[in-house]
Amino acid sequence: MKIWAEGVTDGDHNAILTWLFRQFVAHRPDLDLIQGQGLKVDTHRNGRARPDGILAPVGYFDGQGEWADPQGVLAVVEVTSWDADTHARDRIGKPAAYAATGIPAYLLVDRDVNAVAVDSRPKRGEYQDRSRHVYGDRTEIPGTGIILATDELKNRFSRGRL
User: What pLDDT digit, counting tens, does each position of 86-126 carry?
Assistant: First the structure.
């Protein structure tokens, strides 16, 4: 049995999620970026995952409880942490579980490499498409009509910045 210990989020982790929320709402006021909501996913940690953020229609989670059906979710968001499990969790385990569940897109803000990775088009338990965008590149979230301008990630959150 594996015991999972997730790192405590830091100020930049939370600020990136807040920045993403503002970006998403500016493009699509009919959507929310929800934090803290659990999802039912068959292949991850006893069938459950709690993404850093979930992009879904406003009100989608109303009345669903702590562990919700992911059927109407448009995308999930993770921001890497500075702990030893980040690679296994955010780059391997969670994207595999989200793809197997059929969530259309997975957005990873990868602070280790100053880039945003976007996985999309889940099929047979895997995302078929993957794109990687260094901070500063425009980043499209497939199926949402949202294109993120990531200059602020570059200016505020680049690892190794002066």
Answer: 666 777 788 999 999 999 999 999 998 999 999 999 998 89
DSSP result, 20-78: HHHHHHHH-TTEEEE-S-EEE-TTSGGGEE--SEEEEETTTTTT--SEE--TT--EEEE
pTM more than 0.85: yes
The single-letter DSSP state of residue 124 is T
Q: What is residue 157's three-state secondary structure?
A: helix
The correct CATH number of 11-157 out of 3.40.50.2000, 3.40.50.1370, 3.90.1570.10, 3.40.1010.20 is 3.90.1570.10
